[in-house]
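Hey L., structure's done. Input below.
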Amino acid sequence: MKAILGKRKFDVVVDWIVFHPDHIEVDLELFRERTGQYVFISSASVYQTPPAMLPVTESTPLDNPYWAYSRAKIACEERLVRAYREEKFPITIVRPSHTYDCTLLPMRGQYTTVARMRAGKKVIVHGDGTSLWTLTHHRDFARGFLGLLGNPRALGEAFHITSDEVLTWNQIFEIVAKAASAPARLVHVPSELIAAFDPDWGASLLGDKAHSMIFDNTKIKRLVPDFAATIPFSRGAAEIIQWFDANPAQQMIDEKTNQIIEDILAAYETAWPKQI
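Output:
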């Protein structure tokens, strides 16, 4: 790749696939003195988990002991910040939080959950379903993101770009069920129990989704005055279901996740006293 780049210069470089500090070192070597802005797509899951205070701001400590993915992103950020301080490498860090488009459902197994709903089956919601979450439509995210590109005031800074709409997980599942014209038979299961059956699913919950996350978007709005998230998840969910309905080949059921859901439900239900 280095040979291909040669002496080519880039006004802006956006990297959204790097998630290991060693990859950052490669990028620093490739783009040092070759770009006016290096934009690193991190993750809002890097913030202190669980957060000591809400709403979360860009100055909230970066500390996630539960999810290796988040710790890797933190390490990448720390290396880039050091490069900025020591050599003025022109970084901008962006921290999305659950940004979606019409192809992405916010549940484990993707369309598997919708298929279960439409079949009248139970679906799992972690915890008691009342933790607060933020879902950001990709078109809304793009408004804020584009305002950072080529913006000299964004250099050396970190920004999260999220919607101001806050929903409980119960509401999220109910909105998807309504869009799918299906019943929402929600079963609330502790995240720790889910993790015991599926460590990867558990890590994404205990290290992220199990905790309420509300974001203060003052910083991005100050730098990009035109930014405003205007698409509610109710509209986004309708777009998602319309896309899946129009593309039957994409209505794939993850059989492994489906079986894990059945196993968790069976184990959870045995914990309740038998009715006499």
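The chain has one domain: 8-270. The domain at 8-270 is CATH 3.40.50.720 (Rossmann fold).

-- N.
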